[in-house]
Amino acid sequence: MPVQRSAPPAPSKPAPDSTRRSEKSRRAIYDAALSLVVEVGYPKTTIEGIAARAGVGKQTIYRWWSSKADVLMEAFLDLGEQSLREAGPVPYTFPDTGDLAADVKGVLRATVDQLRDPRFEAPSRALAAEGVVNEQLGRELVAKLMQPSLDLYMERLRAAQDAGQVRPDVDPRIALEFFISPLAQRWLQHTGPISYEYTDTLVDYALHGLAPR
Amino acid sequence: MPVQRSAPPAPSKPAPDSTRRSEKSRRAIYDAALSLVVEVGYPKTTIEGIAARAGVGKQTIYRWWSSKADVLMEAFLDLGEQSLREAGPVPYTFPDTGDLAADVKGVLRATVDQLRDPRFEAPSRALAAEGVVNEQLGRELVAKLMQPSLDLYMERLRAAQDAGQVRPDVDPRIALEFFISPLAQRWLQHTGPISYEYTDTLVDYALHGLAPR
């Protein structure tokens, strides 16, 4: 679900005061949702709890979102957009300089930075942990939070196939996992440290394989 | 911690009745721990709850284990050993037929079977989910439950390097992640289906790389 769709609908002739009020409520609701899921975990986070902490009525939340999962995922998307805006006017696309290795290394270094950002870490972990035991939520997290980046990886890999830099028989949906899954597992399961050097190495191994050439 | 070390210590001259009683208690405690963590989650699973469900005193548990994390990890290791025994007298080593691809494919197919075994799935997910938000537990899970297999992968990859099948400059600790991390992420985060065909493909891509040769 794109963020725009379930944000408060703009009235046809917006009354400045009520728009400001809506925007303020929306932000208070996002902040409350993110802080609650970190403090008490996903199962104990409720619409009632979010409303109480945000200082709004339950009905205000139900007017804009259908479930706590929806509120949380949009709060999380909003956090990502905030950080993108702070980083400058960078459009969210995958770089294509013609050098696949350099492009993927750059994207993975940005992912390393994001995984280490304390604002992201706690809510990301709380949502990811619940997704492990709650398949429906897990699938929603994939569809809403991960799929857009997976699509960009696939598009970049297809361009590399067209340019003769990746074998034509390789399935881009599987190939992208060599870039994202080792990093994801180290982060999720604490199986190893995360660094630029590590993700650079992943890219080199993935492109050239482990066997002698 | 090896399972044997914290199992009930065998008396120097075992009295058959008390040994049987201990073994029966140990099994009841394992079953109680695994079923509780699935039903109420890791944070609400307590030594008291495990004792009550197992029909033993709290002190019986504290005599053998120092924490609920210890009980759960050993219960889980025991489950793995049970399933190995059922599969026949297979020693837990990594096959080395000289064909690295075939050997890794075989091990990954067995992992696919285990990830799909309903006896494993619920407790594995409950422990893994808690490890995502609880770094100390996460690190214990890695050290006690995952490290033994990671070591076997590393040993097999080093043998392949000696045999000239893997480049000598490749770090086996990173290389093994191409085999285990994509599968782990699909399973943990519900990012895609798991099958023998999928893991076979991972092995081929990892060994030969994505770039044209």
Automatic annotation (TrEMBL), chains A, B:
Region (Disordered), start-end ranges: 1-24
Stretches assigned to the HTH tetR-type domain: 23-83
Protein name (Swiss-Prot/TrEMBL): TetR-family transcriptional regulator
Keywords on record: DNA-binding, Transcription, Transcription regulation
Gene3D superfamilies attached to this UniProt entry: Homeodomain-like, Tetracycline Repressor, domain 2
Location of the DNA-binding region in this protein: 46-65
Taxonomic source organism: Streptomyces azureus
Gene Ontology molecular function: any one: transcription cis-regulatory region binding
PROSITE patterns given in the database record: HTH_TETR_2
Pfam families documented for this protein: TetR_C_11 (PF16859), TetR_N (PF00440)
